[in-house]
Amino acid sequence: MAAIKLPASSQPGQSGLIGRLANNQVLLGYLFILPSMIGFIVFFALPAIRSVIISFHEWNLLTDAEFVGLANYQDIFSDDRFWRSLQITVTYVMWNIPVQTVLAVVIAVFLERISNSSLLRGIMILPWLMPNVIVAMLFVWLLDPTLGLVNIFLQNIGIGKQAFFGDPNQAIASVAGVNIWRHMGYNAILIYAGLKTIPRSLYEAATVDGANLWEQFWGITLPLLRPVLVFVLVTSVIGSFQIFDTIAVATEGGPAGATRTIIVYIYEQVFERRINMGVATAASVVLFAILITVTIIQTRYLRAGQSDLADYQ
Amino acid sequence: MATLSRTNGTATEIREPKRLNVARIITWIVVGFMVFITLFPFYWVLRTALTDPDFGTLFAHASDLLPTNATLFNFERVLGMIDPSTIVGQESANLSAGTINFWVYLRNSFIVAGLVTFGQTLFSSMAAYAFARFKFPLRDQIFFVYLTGLMIPGIVLFIPNFVLIKQLGLIGTFAGIVAPGFLMSPFAIFFMRQFFISLNKDLEEAAMLDGATAFGVFWRIAIPLMRGPLLTLGLLTFIGAWNEYLWPFLVGRDESVRVLTVALNVFKSQTPQGAPDWAGLMAGTTVSIVPTILLFIFFGRRVVDSIQFSGFK
Amino acid sequence: MKRRFSVLLFVLVALLALAVSVSAQDSVTIRYQLWDTSQLPPYQQCADAFQAANPGITIAIEQLSWDDYWTGISTGFISGTAPDVFTNHLAKYPEFVALEQLVDIQPLVERDGVPTDIYYPGLADLWVKDGQRYGLPKDWDTVALVYNKAMVEAAGIDPASLNELTWNLEDGGTFMQTIAALTIDANGNNALSPDFDKSNVVQYGYIPDGMGGAYGQTQWSAYTASLGWTFNEGPWATSYNYDDQRFIDTIQWWADLALEYGYSPAFSDITSLGAGSLFQAGQGAMTQNGSWMIGYFLSSEFEVGFARLPAGPEGRKSMFNGLADSIWVGTQHLEESWAWVKFLASAECQNFVGASGVVFPAIPEAAAMSQQMRADAGVDVSAFVDQANEEGGTFLFPIADYAGEISTIMNEAMDAISLGQAKAADILPAANAEINDLF
């Protein structure tokens, strides 16, 4: 972005007003990020660093901590439940992200290019307005094998009753389905906001050149949507790896451990066991490392910091 | 497609709208289906909220599409129009006897969500602007470190944060509930940065050349241009804060600062294998999402319509 | 832009003003927590009576739903914000003792000469470890059969005869015959008929309350106990008997009620909304549950009765569970908290609870009031009370360390058995070994 059509103002070494402004950027930059920096250090960085330290201790937060070196890490790496929880988490992400993102893009494009009805936009965001704990309870009710309306409907049309949350083979996909329901409209609105930043003139020019809607989507919409799409993908993948609320309500990690994702595993260490803070934080550090890796790959691959829009202007 | 290639220009002009119509019909069917999937669970919330709350009735008529023995009783309970201690008897064992001070909790929810939205949106936008526009040492590194804030499992953060809030003496205060989200959220910074990157610099540079200060440019030029994304972010932040559960549950359980989502707790399962007070819970849910729906109706149109960038194109 | 800025400022100031206007007041207040809203009214009566007698103390009752209750207690311990006094559960308290979070009230009991023998036998002792006492009993519960009167009568069975059912591992006794007779397929055949189609059942004979995890309180524990099996060698034992052949066979039988016989709905159909809701929806003729669920079942649209558990080779056995009120070590007002706990455990308070009928208080006279309250309303709950009063009719909830870990291990194993993924004989020994390794 810096290479394109940058006027002299951003080039250091210039004299007078321009140069002074450019030099001020350092001070200004720090000034602008100062409030957020305080919030970040106090509520994110310090607790996170403390967590890393705790992960080398055996500690229940109440009695004295005992330094145990890497023992907590050895514990989780030799725990089959931990490895299984990683595998379940990845399965969940694989169900959740592709379906949710594709649906969100389709809905957003539809809302922007075809309908433009604010009523439809309002409807699509509705599921996100419901707290996720309530959403989970509602779906437990709707998907119940015997009393749930969905199953009564499935039986009537001859598909037959599905256990959904109660079947180890369906449970994780069912949880993914519930979260897709809640989040697709939300992501669609974010993507929609991104679509609105694409200048209409580009489509007009493309139409004049004879490109159809499909070609316009691949040639203009998708490339120019990249910053927003990266944002949606990065945040929803991170969120998806940390799936917890729906499972806590709907399956509590069951049946037979089929929905024990990594956060459920961590939660169990703290609240279902004797506040195994060391093990819980060690597992969190591992999850953190995984997420960092995934995010770096995503941002590198998708060139998050750049916009193709500049190329068109 | 083969026929299309043989036709000349005039023929295509006639065929084009016809082909589009078929596509449109299919699209609208798909959209109709999506709207149904999106809205039906809401209908079910309302239907359950209007149903006779006795479990006997609720479970014996689980598949009735209309409320069984339709009643406003549940809404009266939620709005505090009925003294709950009078409804406890053997015939209503599943009904919650918890009190709901509805209007107090509503006010509290507005205070919490309002403060979080204001602080988080303002300070995150400032930081996002700095990351997108200013050049200063470690800029990209700091941004990436901020991003990692998203990747720290919430469960690892909330225990130390909870202890910190306790040490600051802020348990049971609005300040304690609001604090972690007031100064920043990695999500908000990431979100705004992606939009600032897409924003054309011409206007800002022109203003700078006219002698405006950097904060002036940010406040008078960049922010107005970002009206749409800002409103979107503000709305999303507000709704997210409105629906927050675990944190306000831990920090703000006192009557004077209890928010609506926490208050709904009285309708959840009372015993280990027990079922929640479904009808009461659904009535409570309905009432608690009405404000956010109203907000969305009121601002939603402006949110999306203002992302037109009329100011700089 | 200026105007907009001032509007924003105004909104912020208004919000802050609202925030400040809500101020907290200070007084000697004892915070007391419980999870069941239906017990809120009688305990509020207790609090009112207590405050009238102790003008210096205010009781603030906080009620939280079951799941959030324990999260709140744990985080409260960590941050120093736990309630002064709270309702405690036998499955949770060993962990709290290990974390050193409960006040040993034995010295106070001795100092004030508080009688601990006025309760149902055994209840007070559940809360003692190594001579230290961590709570005073408030109530108890037992388990009984619950039946849909119309369905039972339609099968030509006298509801009164349900009190005389027998059970054994070999042929299931009259219990199995009865639930078979109550299981009806779409063609109207019951499960005793050779034409019975177990893939198309419209009315189940018996709806188990799930697989029961590590304790099977309202599920299999009545049956395993009637074979003479015990969880462990008594309170604070350090090994479990989940690998005992009697236990393994009973669990397999329990799972086979659905998997093999078709007398029960699939366990995956029961887990989400629970056996109670299926029963109330008219899906089955009988179920089994604890006495705290009496009111729940009475809200059914049809007439419901309660019957004694089936008698096994070693007799009729119900798990006997009891709650108590404990004091948190972090309380700033130990004496006031103790006064409140003493009052909660007294006849005066337990009579309020008994009169409400919601649970059976720990003091027998107060429990009798609860039974009488139901009887006055035309409901016979003697199946629960007789079980508690019978010599050898009850066994205690197993108290031991690592309850959370044990639950995690057993829930997984039990789920796998109930889903037909594994046989009880194949996985329970391994699960038991994993549990015994914890200690």
Describe the fold and architecture.
The complex is a heterotrimer of chains A (313), B (313) and C (439). Chain A has one domain (55-312): MetI-like fold (Orthogonal Bundle), CATH 1.10.3720.10. Chain A has 14 helices and two strands; from the N terminus they run αββααααααααααααα. Chain A has helices at residues 16-54, 71-77, 80-115, 118-129, 132-142, 149-156, 171-195, 200-208, 213-224, 226-241, 245-250, 262-272, 277-302, 309-312, and strands spanning 57-58, 66-67. Chain A has a two-stranded antiparallel sheet with strand order 1-2. The longest helix of chain A has 39 residues, at 16-54. Chain B has 313 residues and is an all-alpha fold. Chain B has two domains: 2-85, no CATH class; 102-305, MetI-like (MetI-like fold, Orthogonal Bundle), CATH 1.10.3720. Chain B is 67% helix and 0% strand. Chain B contains 15 helices and no strands. The longest helix of chain B has 41 residues, at 9-49. Chain B is globular. Mean pLDDT of chain B is 80; it is low at 1-17 and 307-313. By secondary structure, chain C is of the alpha/beta class. Chain C has two domains: 29-139 and 322-383, D-Maltodextrin-Binding Protein, domain 2, CATH 3.40.190.10; 143-320 and 397-436, D-Maltodextrin-Binding Protein, domain 2 (3-Layer(aba) Sandwich). Helix content of chain C is 42%, strand content 15%. Chain C has 18 helices and 14 strands. Chain C has helices at 2-21, 40-53, 66-79, 93-98, 106-112, 149-154, 173-182, 221-225, 245-261, 267-270, 275-280, 294-298, 334-344, 347-356, 364-376, 382-389, 403-418, 424-436; strands at residues 29-34, 58-63, 85-88, 128-129, 132-133, 136-141, 143-148, 184-185, 201-207, 284-290, 304-307, 318-327, 360-361, 394-396. In chain C, strands 1, 2, 3, 6, 12, 13 and 14 form a seven-stranded mixed β-sheet that branches. In chain C, strand 4 (128-129) and strand 5 (132-133) form a beta hairpin. In chain C, helix 2 packs antiparallel against helix 14 (347-356) and helix 14 runs parallel beside helix 15 (364-376). The termini of chain C are far apart. Chains in contact: A-B, A-C, B-C. Chains A and B meet through helix 1, helix 3, helix 4, helix 5 and helix 7 of A and helix 2, helix 5, helix 6, helix 7 and helix 8 of B.
